[in-house]
Design brief:
A 5-stranded parallel β-sheet has the order 2-1-3-4-5, sandwiched between helices. Helices cover 56% and strands 7% of the residues. The longest helix has 19 residues. The protein starts with a strand and ends with a helix. The protein is an alpha/beta fold and 351 residues long. It is elongated, with a radius of gyration of 23 Å.
Amino acid sequence: MAGLLLISDDLGRTARFVRDLGISQSICILDLYDDGPASEQPDLIVSDVKALSSEAFRRLRRTLQRLRGTNVPYLCLLHDNSVRTITHANLLDASALLNASSATCHLINTMSEIPTSMVGTSKFAKRQAETALQFISTVFQPSRSITPDLADVGTAIVADAVRENGIRTWVRIVQRFDDATHKHILLVAGLASAFAAALGLSTTDRHHLAKASLLHDVGKIHVPVSILNKPGKLDQAEMALMRTHAERGHAMLVGHGFDDNILSVVRSHHEMIDGSGYPDKLVGTDIPDFVRLVTICDIYGALIEHRPYRAPMSGKQSYDIMKSMCGRLDADLVNAFAPIAEVFSENDQQR
């Protein structure tokens, strides 16, 4: 065994930390950005990564997958308490999180307290979904400015979870959440990520589609909770207020660096190609393909989820309804959605 393994983005800083730690067991420091040969499996892994960017997160997770195995405890040192850092740290499935400024004092005690049995894939998938929910709950606030970089963090959580666990597992976990609006956002973002992969879109386009889906209902933070969670159908006045979410979401994001595709999705995901949608009653080719893709995921997600006034529909029934909407929805894209819908039809048979 290699004893204690420290993964670092600054070898000098980590070496000073080791000296301050003053322990006698075997210690190895691994450079996060040095893709060297695999080391022996250690007894304990500690990450000392100050700049926990998306690239650092990917490298750190890859290293942990290579060296951690199923029973090696892992401690993550936190150098700040930003949303990005906390989100990434949670997704790394650490046995414990330690503030880097006090890690020297508490590391030994923590090492003696953490369990040695690690979580399985299903539990990790649940944690990914819970982290995504926490992200939305924290970031989607009326007083908070949402930036493209911040949205990228949430998008990566959903896309990684769907890729690693499958869309059926993602939907099954998300459907257990209580908040209807946040649950719907996560369902649609997951469906969009899976749909983009099924269509063979480029990595960049997949990310953009999932990102747009994550943001599509952001304007609902300005709609009263009493309307969002009403245990029945909305009356005419309530529906009119609900329908303002598309324009209000668009207004929230304009001028904050989001590209036109994202903005179009947020504003136009309720438009129908026959002109019967809202808010602008766009017709045919006035609705970009990017918007049409998200609209399909939005409608399917709404049909398969529980609503206060009805039970969730089966996968097959939901897809049949979407096929009956061809003429309002893009028929080619509805047909292309068939592999995703089939996953949920199989799930119906397993109930």
